[in-house]
């Protein structure tokens, strides 16, 4: 091949930086920009690493990057065929499953989208909000969804329509599964997760992790994660006390608090993916993104707009993700409304404009410290000043510092205390365990003094039903809070319990304040004692493996969003599309109708229920068909 033809062959890759490690090929003759660097700062700007050395024996700096490792055989294949060939078969690492793919998800998707988006992006795939010419896969249970997209775009894009099982199975076994097995209508027999286990060597023998209770809302997604861990030889424990690392989304919740109190190592899903990609056990505190996110974002950063300038692509992506995790808004362009500019040097046009507009300018360490310490550092400190030629450093944090900082924050649950930490700690320990309660059906707001006295007793009033241990109401009510918190609450108590605890200045026994007054609703007498018995073995999975069809013609538009959230809180799948509903024959199917009498000769495999009867079923935590056809 002539030099001219060779240059034309790789013209699409001109500008990509390559790191050549352990190979004798002279890539400068192909690309003209291949280079050999060893420091971590330069690695952040590299797009590919061409190497014939196993990733297991590469240096620490290279091993902990997120850069595709490509075998030199890819270059030979490109030269022989005279074209750029698919790079995926030549990747060293197995965690580039979605390399070069763009996925679009249906709006009705059974899974935790926050973690799924992180997984797909870390496995080098892209997620788009709508279908375009670059889209390769549409993940859905409904053919009508893809048809509506095509009609709007008025283009005939070649997009593979696959079910969510295709994505989960591809993640679990490190390779793209055959799409024909996952097309609609869904086959009755799909590969089991045992079939997806491979024989790759155990990378993490004698090491274990534990997923937090709120780690994922999708059972299918949890199975994919467990299989992924099995394929790497990483043990997954059910009890966090038996694991080396506790993995969770947020720095929040009773489990996280207890794990931290015994100095258990905590980490995020981002850390777990980096462990898989590098096949190296990484210390979570060496990178702020390896720590769980702050729940709801940092309060003082929520309304801030932050931009950056002078950073390479990988550094900018790192900072953008860190900014979003902190709760602030990342802006690609600088505006007069921007609050903070992160700058690498003082020569960029953004820096000069920010100085003219009076925008605060700091270096990248400012946002790292803000994320670690959950506060807004003083921008005028010397360590945050912008200096030309300064290194881009990701500062580690000593575990003792992180532990002291987090335990102090959790002792006060984010509020500035007016009492000593030692006294609060003794009171929390005396209360045996923290109470996270949801209160509903009570219209008068609690005073700040009343809430502070509850906190001293170890009782927190929250709105997040995923974290609640106690559901408190004056009576059985059909509010969204009550229906969503019901499967998670260990106790269902009268409102008087809170006032009695404050009056007695101690946490009283819950058994004396159980909500016992029954409710007659939809020809059914509902008792919370029977509900607690029914849900004792369900583990907030009353509607597990159940898909519920709700139609706007049956349920008023104002109630549809509430019903959706109630179904999802009970681990169910909700859809408004009948074709999607009919295709999910492997699930238990429930359709909410106006009158059950209209469906007496309908499909025997579908449970028909009126809206009132369905709400009664949720209150009872037991699916029962409507007893009154006239309803």
TrEMBL record:
Residue span(s) of domain BRCT: 62-92, 93-184, 296-373, 426-515
InterPro entries found in the cross-reference section: BRCT_dom (IPR001357), BRCT_dom_sf (IPR036420), CellCycle_DNARepair_Reg (IPR053036)
Biological processes annotated in GO: DNA double-strand break attachment to nuclear envelope; double-strand break repair
Gene3D superfamilies according to UniProt: BRCT domain (3.40.50.10190)
Superkingdom of origin organism: Eukaryota
SUPFAM superfamilies from the UniProt entry: BRCT domain
Pfam families per UniProt: BRCT, PTCB-BRCT, RTT107_BRCT_5
PANTHER family the record matches: REGULATOR OF TY1 TRANSPOSITION PROTEIN 107
Name this protein carries in UniProt: BRCT domain-containing protein
